[in-house]
Design a protein that fits this description.
Length: about 120
C-alpha cells in the first residue's frame, strides 16, 4: 500500500512557475514508476511526466522543455517543476505510483492538487 499526498498547486499568471510535490507514505526507492497526470474539466486524464526507479523520464511534447520531473528517494518525494505555464495547463494534477512486487502490479493515486493558470 502506498499513500500519496500532493502539494504546491495554486493560481499563477501565464508565464509563471509552480513546483508540485508528491510525498509517499513509504520508501519510493523500489517503486517502479512514479508520475504526474492531469485532468482538465471535460477532458480525459493525461500523462504529464513520469520517472522510473532508474531515473529515466518521459513526457509528452506539450510540456517538454517547460516541465521537469525529479525524485528524491531520501525524502520519498517526487517533484514537478512547471515553468512558462499556459492557461491550457489548468487542471487538477494527480500523483501516481506504479509498484510491482513479483508479477503483481498496483497503481496508486493521490487526491490531486488544482493548478490554475490565469491572468
Amino acid at each position: 500500500q502506498v499513500q500519496l499526498v500532493e502539494s504546491g498547486g495554486g493560481l499563477v499568471q501565464p508565464g509563471g512557475s509552480l513546483r508540485l510535490s508528491c510525498a509517499a507514505s513509504r520508501s519510493i526507492f523500489s517503486i517502479n514508476v512514479m508520475g504526474w497526470y492531469r485532468q482538465a474539466p471535460g477532458k480525459q486524464r493525461e500523462l504529464v511526466a513520469d520517472i522510473t526507479s532508474s531515473r529515466s523520464t518521459n513526457s509528452p511534447d506539450s510540456v517538454k522543455g517547460r516541465f521537469t520531473i525529479s525524485r528524491d528517494n531520501t525524502k520519498n518525494t517526487i517533484y514537478l517543476q512547471m515553468n512558462s505555464l499556459k492557461p491550457e495547463d489548468t487542471a487538477v494534477y494527480y500523483c501516481n505510483a506504479l509498484y510491482c512486487s513479483g508479477d503483481k502490479c498496483n497503481n496508486y493515486w493521490g487526491q490531486g492538487t488544482q493548478v490554475t493558470v490565469s491572468s
